[in-house]
Design a protein that fits this description.
37% helix; 16 helices; 20 strands; 8-stranded mixed β-sheet; alpha/beta; 7-stranded mixed β-sheet
């Protein structure tokens, strides 16, 4: 009886909100396609009654625009896309975050823009740039170093024409909703810097809005996940982590894996290496759980006033806690531990996903691979075979997006594969490029591989390009290449 009374009491005081993180395949400088992905994702979140959705860093432009960031058109088109999203998609039911470059005082910043009800709430510039590995953000962007106050940003005409909003705030600040929920924006590796985030949590931040652009490296995802879990546990907060997905036209591959964590527990995770245009991960958060945890920790209470005077807050006339879902139970933590993929599987999924996105965006219909009978060309073909197996699995799940792309590649509206070989036969064409010096074994291995895969194969010899010319014979030179 006592347990039932306690349960009813907790249900009465429960304060819940449905939140979302999205991951999308954003192609650099493909503004129209990126807009479609963002529009579809936000509309899906609104349909699911989510009151908050976070998108990845630089999602409007794509992450690796490189020196195109220096072109004024890149920022201009970004404002045009943002204006269209504000006018047609971002309504009074949701808070959204989009990433794009923004110029302020003749410097270019990597920014996240937080929007609600057709207006911009805050432009948050990145404070710690990524200049290691394949990232060279310091070449294109300026880090924001003024943490003392936020500035007024004069909006461009295309934004002002939507709702007569003249200015918005620019700088480091937290969002404070009408129902007293504090949101802390962070961008990418800011979370790794000591002090950033923790002091704001002591000042009242309850949800960390973490937009990132982390590309795939072997074993890196598991390390990042542990960092997010530890931060969420130590600071007794909720983290919404949004990461891009797929190939954006450059050399790297973004693996997705966007997550929602609370109190150190993993509540929801979007798939890694997904073949979709975008994925959304949802969770219903009970804010009273973390609030009670903070209240019970006396050491936490002793430090809540540290640097509280320097924190900037922006009031938002919006209730994040939803009455429509108050009777729904909060999302339970995932019971199964996220285990690392085997190395060979991770490499095949990453490489195959990159090829799939490149194939789609290039509007190509397949790949041609010259086989030598050796390991290199065989490995490339095997990557496509693994991709075909994954595509067939999505076909069996009635994935509408994958099915439409397969029909385009096959140039057949009635294309209905019965096995992965049917898909691979449309994706891959091979040829044995033999010479007079090639052995029967390499020819046999190339032929055997294509028999196993079931793809179209040409078995020929390239004598035209490798036979020595009379001049080569007279001078004892190596055969010319043409």
């Amino acid at each position: 009886m006592g347990f039932q009374i306690k349960q009813r009491f907790m249900e009465k005081i429960r304060k819940v909100a449905k939140v979302a993180v999205m991951q999308g395949n954003f192609m650099s400088l493909d503004f129209i396609e990126n807009y479609k992905v963002l529009k579809d994702a936000v509309e899906a979140a609104i349909t699911e009654e989510s009151s908050l959705i976070i998108c990845p860093e630089l999602c409007i432009t794509g992450t690796l625009c490189e020196d195109h960031y220096f072109e004024k058109d890149t920022e201009t088109h970004s404002w045009e896309i943002l204006a269209t999203l504000l006018e047609k998609t971002v309504n009074d039911k949701i808070i959204c975050a989009f990433g794009m470059p923004v110029s302020f005082n003749n410097a270019l910043y990597d920014c996240m823009i937080y929007c609600h009800n057709h207006e911009i709430l805050l432009i948050r510039p990145k404070t710690v740039l990524q200049d290691s590995g394949n990232s060279r953000q310091g070449r294109w962007f300026t880090p924001w170093v003024d943490n003392s106050e936020v500035s007024d940003f004069i909006l461009p005409d295309i934004i002002r024409n939507i709702k007569k909003q003249e200015t918005c705030k620019f700088g480091q600040a937290m969002l404070f909703t009408y129902d007293k929920v504090c949101l802390l924006p962070l961008i990418d590796n800011e979370l790794l810097v000591p002090g950033i985030g923790s002091i704001e949590c002591l000042a009242g931040a309850e949800i960390v809005l973490h937009s990132a652009a982390s590309y795939h490296e072997m074993g890196n995802y598991e390390k990042e996940l542990k960092i997010l879990q530890n931060f969420s546990k130590i600071n007794k907060c909720t983290i919404l982590h949004a990461n891009p997905l797929g190939c954006d036209g450059g050399r790297v591959y973004y693996e997705g894996g966007s997550t929602i964590l609370s109190g150190g527990e993993l509540l929801s995770q979007a798939p890694r290496f997904s073949l979709n245009r975008f994925n959304i991960s949802y969770a219903i958060i009970d804010f009273e759980e973390n609030r009670l945890s903070r209240t019970a920790d006396k050491q936490w209470g002793a430090y809540t006033t540290v640097n509280s005077q320097s924190n900037q807050f922006i009031n938002v006339t919006f209730e994040l806690l939803q009455h429509s879902i108050k009777n729904k139970k909060p999302t339970e933590p995932l019971k199964e531990e996220i285990k690392p993929l085997p190395i060979h599987q991770e490499l095949a999924f990453c490489s195959g996903g990159w090829l799939w996105d490149y194939l789609r965006h290039a509007r190509a219909i397949g790949f041609f691979i010259p086989l030598s009978g050796g390991a290199d060309s065989a490995a490339c073909s095997t990557i496509l075979a693994v991709l075909s197996e994954r595509l067939f699995a999505e076909y069996q799940k009635n994935n509408a997006f994958v099915i439409s792309e397969l029909k385009r590649i096959a140039d057949d509206e009635n294309f209905a594969p019965s096995s992965k070989k049917d898909i691979l036969s449309k994706l891959l064409v091979t040829s044995y490029l033999g010479t007079v010096n090639s052995s029967k074994e390499t020819r046999y291995r190339a032929k055997a591989l294509t028999v196993e895969f079931g793809n179209l194969h040409y078995d020929g010899t390239c004598l035209l390009y490798t036979s020595p010319s009379p001049r080569d014979l007279s001078t004892s030179r190596m055969p010319s290449s043409a």
